[in-house]
């Protein structure tokens, strides 16, 4: 399984408009059976006006297929033409999922107390 993060640096003051557009755009992405999950993230720290689209795919091949098929959709192209004027720059990060059932971290004192039981 892979996670793809499309990271957009938005133009000043365009975050609300971009988030609204992506909520609409996710409809296009969800029509495909390739994408397992999608979520939108916005910045709390770091560069202002950052929007991240995080999607999950079963494999790199599934993601590659999605990259080839989505741009050929006329409805998607019309939507994308509305989104791109809101963006200053962007990048993509791909990650391999190596675990999704990781136990939460506990403070050291509590962890020691749990061992003593």
Any chance you could write out the topology, listing elements then pairs?
Blueprint: E1 2-10, H1 15-30, E2 35-42, E3 50-57, H2 60-69, H3 74-83, E4 87-96, H4 108-116
Antiparallel strand pairs: 1-3, 1-4, 2-3
Explain how this protein is built:
The chain has about 120 residues and is of the alpha+beta class. It has one domain (about 1-115): Alpha-Beta Plaits, CATH 3.30.70. The protein is about 40% helix and about 30% strand. The chain has four helices and four strands, in the order E-H-E-E-H-H-E-H. The chain has helices at about 15-30, 60-70, 75-85, 110-115, and strands at about 1-10, 35-40, 50-55, 85-95. The chain has a four-stranded antiparallel β-sheet with strand order 2-3-1-4. A hairpin with a 7-residue loop joins strand 2 (about 35-40) and strand 3.
Biggest beta sheet summary: 4 strands, antiparallel
Give the CATH class: Alpha Beta
CATH architecture verdict: 2-Layer Sandwich
* Number of self-contained structural domains: 1
What is the share of helical residues? Answer: 25-40%
Number of strands: 4
Rg for CA atoms: 18 Å
N/C terminus separation = 37 Å
Number of helices: 4
Unreliably modeled segments = none
Query: If strands are numbered along the chain, what order do they take across the biggest sheet?
Result: 2-3-1-4
Task: Could you tell me the CATH topology label.
Answer: Alpha-Beta Plaits
Q: How would the global form be characterised? A: globular
Roughly what is the average pLDDT, rounded to an integer?
Answer: 85
Percent of residues in β-strands:
25-35%
- Assembly type of the chains comes to single chain
Order of helical and strand elements: EHEEHHEH
Structural class: alpha+beta
């Amino acid at each position: 399984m892979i996670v793809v993060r499309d990271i957009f640096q938005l133009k000043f003051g365009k975050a609300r408009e971009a988030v609204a557009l992506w909520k609409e755009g996710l409809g296009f992405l969800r029509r495909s059976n390739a994408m397992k999950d999608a979520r939108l993230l916005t910045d709390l720290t770091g560069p202002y006006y950052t929007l991240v689209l995080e999607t999950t795919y079963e494999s790199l091949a599934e993601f590659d297929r999605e990259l080839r098929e989505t741009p050929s959709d006329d409805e998607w192209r019309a939507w994308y033409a509305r989104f791109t004027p809101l963006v200053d720059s962007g990048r993509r990060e791909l990650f391999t999922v190596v675990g999704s059932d990781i136990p939460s971290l506990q403070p050291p004192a509590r962890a020691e107390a749990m061992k003593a039981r």
